[in-house]
């Protein structure tokens, strides 16, 4: 029986298993037939049809791209609040640095405005440079009344028929004490600028701060000269063995006085001016700079109304032309000497090699000297031009730089040597020991 069953099983036909594609095709064909057969049985509804996705949700979540900001934050071993705090502190530090830089730049600009402006001419384009010119320093008031120095009663009277100006020194009150005993020995000097031909002095009053002078002094002044003159009254403290100390001064412009009436008034003493406004004469010269060849040409043309230095009322003037570089003396040339003349005519030119970089740091010093054969030469007046100069001198220098290859001539008033030297501020040379000089001379001699 068992053998019959095994034979029967082995003789059964093989079972056919349909593939997935055939099943799908069969289903789609069957569904098409059903749709064709039952198309009349379709039900149309007005309700929206909701499509339900049967896809698994574990694949729908989007993973962040590798290297994103959030991924970077996740890798930092700190809590989020600490990371945000660090970023906030960093941004605050950057803002504070920017604020400090802005404040520093503003402070630098203010300091530059307070200092004497130094103009650096970077280009020579032929345009005018009047906008770069500093204001003239002649109008600067040196007399600031920060410390009370007392007051002075004076009088002014002008006689037009005799061309005489009478200056009266009446009295002073509450003068500044200059001695150790809280007192002073005051006296007054009176003179007229710019000529300063005569200087008068009052008597000295001992140990008083309220002296009564009651003295008058007469000056010969024509009407045209009166309009350009200034009466100067300086109060000094007398010292027998040391230099007399100045207490204060008054300066009255004579062009403002009434010529028909006597003027008598009190005025507070002011701090004395640093330099006197003397009439030292004028000088005319031309400047020409050629940037391509780096040549600076200075032509000394003439001078007029120079100060008489000799006993005979004349002078023997010559002109010294000097260049300074970085506040140090550099090059020097001199003109010929003109004997016994206060209005000399030179017409001499000098050429210096100055590069475009050096022209921004160089100063030109023009000085007039009186030649003496038996004694030391005397200075008659001085001035300097360059980026450190002011007024007409700076304007002349700027015109030269803005007009290359073209000579620019101009008249200039001479100033005192003390005033120009103080403005220049030249660096002093390092003193060389005498033994070192002797050794160098011996080496040169035996070479």
TrEMBL record:
Kindly indicate whether the keyword Nucleotide-binding belongs to this entry.
Answer: no
Is the Signal keyword given for this protein? no
- What are its GO cellular component terms? axon; dense core granule; plasma membrane; synaptic vesicle membrane
Where the record annotates domain C2, the positions are 148-267, 279-412
Q: Which UniProt keywords apply?
A: Membrane, Repeat, Transmembrane, Transmembrane helix
Which one Pfam family would you cite for this protein? C2
What CDD domains does its record include?
C2B_Synaptotagmin-1
SMART domains the UniProt entry points to: C2 (SM00239)
The molecule here is called: C2 domain-containing protein
Q: Which organism is it from?
A: Gambusia affinis (Western mosquitofish)
């Amino acid at each position: 029986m068992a053998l019959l069953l095994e034979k029967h099983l082995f003789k059964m036909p093989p079972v056919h298993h349909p593939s997935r594609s055939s099943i799908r095709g069969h289903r789609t064909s069957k569904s098409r037939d059903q749709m064709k057969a039952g198309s009349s049985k379709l039900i149309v509804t007005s309700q929206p049809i909701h499509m339900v996705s049967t896809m698994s949700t574990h694949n729908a979540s989007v993973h962040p791209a590798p290297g994103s900001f959030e991924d970077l934050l996740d890798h930092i071993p700190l809590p989020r609040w600490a990371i945000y705090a660090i970023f906030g502190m960093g941004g605050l530090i950057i803002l504070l640095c920017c604020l400090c830089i802005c404040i520093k730049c503003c402070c630098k600009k203010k300091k530059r405005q307070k200092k004497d402006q130094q103009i650096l001419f970077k280009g020579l384009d032929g345009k005018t440079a009047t906008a770069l010119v500093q204001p003239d320093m002649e109008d600067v008031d040196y007399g600031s009344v920060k410390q009370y120095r007392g007051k002075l009663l004076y009088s002014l009277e002008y006689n037009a028929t005799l061309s005489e100006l009478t200056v009266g020194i009446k009295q002073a009150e509450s003068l500044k004490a200059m001695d150790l005993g809280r007192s002073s020995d005051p006296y007054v000097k009176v003179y007229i600028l710019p000529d300063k031909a005569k200087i008068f002095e009052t008597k000295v009053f001992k140990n008083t701060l309220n002296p009564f002078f009651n003295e008058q002094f007469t000056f010969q002044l024509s009407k045209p000269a009166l309009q350009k003159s200034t009466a100067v009254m300086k109060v000094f403290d007398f010292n027998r063995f040391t230099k007399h100390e100045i207490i204060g001064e008054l300066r009255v412009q004579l062009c403002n006085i009434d010529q028909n009436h006597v003027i008598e008034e009190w005025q507070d003493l002011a701090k004395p001016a640093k330099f006197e406004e003397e009439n030292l004469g004028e000088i005319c010269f031309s400047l020409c700079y050629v940037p391509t060849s780096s040549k600076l040409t200075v032509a000394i043309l003439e001078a007029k109304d120079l100060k008489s230095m000799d006993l005979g009322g004349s002078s023997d003037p010559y002109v010294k032309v000097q260049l300074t570089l970085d506040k140090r003396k550099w090059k020097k040339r001199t003109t010929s000497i003109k004997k016994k003349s206060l209005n000399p005519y030179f017409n001499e030119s000098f050429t210096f090699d100055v590069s475009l970089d050096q022209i921004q740091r160089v100063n030109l010093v023009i000085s007039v000297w009186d030649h003496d054969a038996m004694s030391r030469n005397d200075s008659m007046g001085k001035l300097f031009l360059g980026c450190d100069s002011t007024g007409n001198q700076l304007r002349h220098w700027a015109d030269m730089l803005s007009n290359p290859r073209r000579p620019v001539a101009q008249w200039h008033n001479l100033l005192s040597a003390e005033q120009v030297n103080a403005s220049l501020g030249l660096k002093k040379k390092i003193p060389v020991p005498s033994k070192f000089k002797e050794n160098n001379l011996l080496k040169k001699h035996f070479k």
